[in-house]
User: What shape does this take?
Amino acid sequence: MPVKFFGQFLIDQGEVDASHVRQALELMEDENPTLGELAIKQGYMNQRQAIQVSAEQRYHDRPFGDLAVKMGFLNREQLVEVVQLQRTQRLPIGEALVRLGHIEGDDRLGTLLDAYKADQAAYDVGERDLPDALANHRATRYVLEFLPRFLMRVARIQAKLGEVVPFEAKPDFAEICVSVHMKGVRGLEVALVADMEFAEALAMAASGLQPSDLDPEMVADGVGEFLNVLGGNAVSAVTKEGQRVELGPPDYDATLGDGWTVDLAVGTGRAALVLSTF
Amino acid sequence: MSRKINVLLVDDSRTVLAQLERILEEVDDLAIVGMARDGASAIRMASEAKPDLVLLDIVMPGLDGLSALRTIKSMHPWIEVAMVSSVSGDAQKAEEAFRLGACQVLGKPFDTDVIESLVENVRVAIANRPEPEEADGEDA
Assistant: This one.
């Protein structure tokens, strides 16, 4: 049960199918104002600049807003404001499906939204005292909250998080060190350092393979995939709050620099998380 | 007797390929016809193996899953493609996948029931549609 968007949940429930979701997305595309249209309406950009940004998008795989900032047509504050405006004016997918007749009325939609909230409640996180640099990166909270839950879900490993303390040196027990990068307005690198006992337990549980079938590459891959799941769900949760964050593939040759570390009290082997901003 | 479903698995992680293989081994009348670890290989293997269903990762080094999806659906519109990704809850990514023709977006960690239900839906969809018109040795 990962972090899901509403359309995906409705398909999983058998309420609608992919063609219904596609129709709803087309309706939303027709009705929802683009970021450029809203920026023009707010008087932050003119038509000519919006066309220039759209033309530039053919050469850069970047969202309109990021490019508009890079090209000097919008500042960060204006972009945040326009993105918020776009969120409030957006036709939600549930309402689009009701209008198309694929969900029978607002009452049924309300019931489904309640079920969706209950399904996703496992991913609500509380507040946590963090160093400012980490607190400013929304993904940090989700990474720390999701870590013990996914260790239990994926590998049946119980884990308790220690305090977030400044990182000093690579731990003596570290035999494996893998990281993932989350790139947005602020970047966050999440590294998992572990001894072989912990890494093998994680890789074995994640792949379903027997110890005799695990080679060193597969062990590192298993740790990388766990970080991918952890980071991906954290990124999904952050994007639900309206921020754009992209997850990169695992880095199997992570070098640990300045940052913070969290020791993991685990029943199998030893492990720690190292978090750095960039 | 239900029709056998041929499945192509695509993920840069060997762990995920092993995991999916283990889940799908339990499904009756299903054969895994290939495994690929990047988007370019996925496109080539989709053309060669002509699977009924592709399970395709989104975040991969090189050609990513959404780009591979676009190409596979344009070359072989009848192949069902379900995206599998840890970032499936990112609405922008998931919406893009549906727009490009994905039949489902599956999150990680996997839910075995959801994967089994996806295979059954694909089986029903295939049974209910006309045979694709295809020139000898060429894709429509």
